[in-house]
């Protein structure tokens, strides 16, 4: 049976960092992965930065620096806080 997985990539305005948000419908948890460089701007990376990313994959098995796994209640609280705080800045 195919799992329903959705994900979205959010780049920092500076273009150097990013957050990937993903969720698998079967477990209800929300996954946040934090990246040093945007994977969408690979052409902007120097050879040294690319090699550093490759080394991280080889040694740690991942591209991201850190990952946070949120249970459904905490994910909902985070979403509500983000909405609330973003509205206060719009005024």
Topology, please?
Layout: E1 5-11, E2 18-24, E3 30-35, H1 47-60, E4 66-70, H2 72-90
Antiparallel strand pairs: 1-2, 2-3, 3-4
Written description of the protein model:
The protein is α+β, with helices and mostly antiparallel strands. It has one domain (5-90). It has two helices and four strands; from the N terminus they run βββαβα. The protein has helices spanning 47-60, 72-90, and strands spanning 5-11, 18-24, 30-35, 66-70. It has a four-stranded antiparallel β-sheet with strand order 1-2-3-4. 2% of the residues are buried.
Helix content: 25-40%
Largest sheet: 4 strands, antiparallel
Give the rounded overall mean pLDDT: 77
Low-confidence stretches: none
- The neighbouring-strand order within the major sheet is 1-2-3-4
Task: Tell me which oligomeric state these chains represent.
Answer: single chain
Overall 3D shape: globular
Q: What's the N-to-C terminus distance?
A: 47 Å
Radius of gyration: 16 Å
Structure annotation, total helices: 2
Number of domains: 1
> How many beta-strand runs?
4
H and E string: EEEHEH
* Helix/sheet category: alpha+beta
Give the DSSP E fraction (strand runs of 2 or more residues). Answer: 25-35%
Sum up the structure in keywords:
single chain; 91 residues; alpha+beta; 4-stranded antiparallel β-sheet; 2 helices; globular
